[in-house]
Design goal:
The protein is α+β, with helices and mostly antiparallel strands. It contains eleven helices and 16 strands. The model has no long low-confidence stretch (mean pLDDT 97). The structure holds (2S)-amino(hydroxy)ethanoic acid and manganese (II) ion (2 copies).
């Protein structure tokens, strides 16, 4: 239980590294990201890992296997957050990985063991996500350099401000032959484990997500003098579409969310002439997601035509569904059995994870642990010490099960 308490205490220490005094937000390439990397590096060093920050700002650590330079089993998660975040989404997985590494005798495994704290899984600052893990996987798109944050700072400038050289980014790309696989432990961010009264689960696949910046254009006008039959109210149109997103998503068995919406010019006595809003659409199967996307787009055009509006849709992020590797899944299941759970629960992840990017370089698998009420992306995010202890035991046993697979 000591290690579990240490992990929880460290989650609290990381939660203090926030750009806001009254809530947790830590975004890519921020001063808080720098402080978190330094703290994680210190913990990695204490665990016996050699550490480095890669060319994408990911904080990394490594212990060698039976020989120096062997391909590595990668353990990790992310240390960036959404706005007003919980303290376990991502961070818990990094700290579980460090604790497992601290329990492994260097020079004993048939592979090296690496831990990575990914720098940008959420995409909070620049809109598109998985920037750290996509760099590691070598699936970087140079168009991302011109992405800008809310202050107009480009990703390129943010790299330089952080002390990174964009020209050296390819140095973060990992060749597949240097990796054995990737295991991530993460809170479920949903209620399935709690409803089943189980601590842990193995992930079968990760939902594929697509995100869009939507705009409804109308015409601003006087809130009093404009008769309804002459209005082109962008907010009422966008609002109709927001309700349709929920209805069509439920009907299609997918998950659609409008998380951001802003009306312009934003006067209480002005009819909104423009609304900018977001769409996050995800499903277990990409075809289901894309079928509902087409329905949402058709609904948007119908609403716009009926209300004299124009509709714009711009894709800002796409990560298609990925299936977890069966051998690595069986190692995770062996880990869960080591905790006394003889029939590990298995289900698909509704949340996205860095594994969606890492899979381009090496096979992946995930261990889920229960979170209170299934709550996440909220300060009420919580886990129990007993569940963290069980996850640590399972994660360590999973690493040893992968070693057994390689010893055969
Ligand atoms: O959006 C997600 O599912 C993840 O938490 N980034
Ligand atoms: Mn998240
Ligand atoms: Mn996460």
């Amino acid at each position: 239980m000591h290690d579990a308490q240490l992990i929880l205490d460290r989650c609290d220490e990381l939660a203090a590294l926030s750009s806001h005094a009254d809530y947790l937000e830590r975004v890519h390439l921020s001063p808080q990201h720098r402080a978190a990397n330094d703290l994680v590096a210190q913990w990695m060093t204490e665990a016996g890992l050699s550490t480095w920050q890669d060319a994408a700002g990911n904080q990394c650590g490594r212990i060698e296997g039976r020989e120096d330079g062997l391909p590595a089993l990668l353990l990790g998660s992310h240390i960036d957050t959404v706005p007003d975040a919980g303290r376990f989404d991502g961070m818990l997985g990094v700290l579980l990985a460090i604790q497992v590494a601290s329990r492994v005798e260097p020079g004993t495994l048939p592979f090296a063991l690496e831990v990575v704290a990914f720098s940008d899984e959420e995409g909070t600052r620049f809109g598109t996500a998985l920037l750290g893990s996509r760099a590691l996987a070598g699936t970087w798109d140079d168009e991302w350099w011109s992405l800008t944050d809310k202050d107009g700072i480009s990703l390129f400038e943010a790299f330089q401000d952080f002390g990174l050289d964009p020209a050296r980014l390819p140095g973060a790309f990992r060749r597949p032959e240097t990796l054995v696989g990737y295991l991530e432990a993460h809170i479920e961010q949903g209620p399935i484990l709690e409803d089943a009264d189980r601590r842990l689960a193995v992930v079968t696949s990760i939902a594929g997500a697509r995100r869009f910046a939507l705009t409804m254009h109308g015409k601003a006008g006087h809130a009093g003098g404009s008769p309804y039959d002459r209005r082109r109210d962008a907010l009422v149109g966008a609002s109709e579409l927001v309700v349709e997103v929920e209805r069509l998503s439920k009907q299609g068995g997918v998950v659609g969310t409008v998380g951001k919406l802003e009306a312009f010019p934003g006067g209480v006595n002005v009819i909104p002439g423009r609304v900018e809003f977001s769409l996050d659409l995800r499903a277990e199967f990409d075809d289901d997601r894309d079928a509902v996307l087409a329905q949402i787009h058709a609904a948007a055009l119908e609403i716009a035509a009926r209300r004299g509006l124009e509709f714009e849709q711009h894709e800002i992020y796409r990560a298609d569904a990925v299936v977890c590797d069966l051998d690595l899944r069986s190692a995770i299941e062996a880990g869960i059995r080591a905790t006394g759970d003889e029939s590990p629960l298995a289900f698909w992840s509704r949340a996205g994870h860095d594994g969606m990017a890492v899979v381009a370089a090496t096979p992946i698998a995930m261990l889920f642990l229960r979170c209170a009420g299934g709550v996440s992306h909220h300060p009420d995010e919580a886990v129990t010490k007993a569940d963290v202890a069980a996850a640590l035991e399972a994660f360590e046993a999973a690493v040893r099960a992968v070693a057994d697979q390689h010893a055969l």
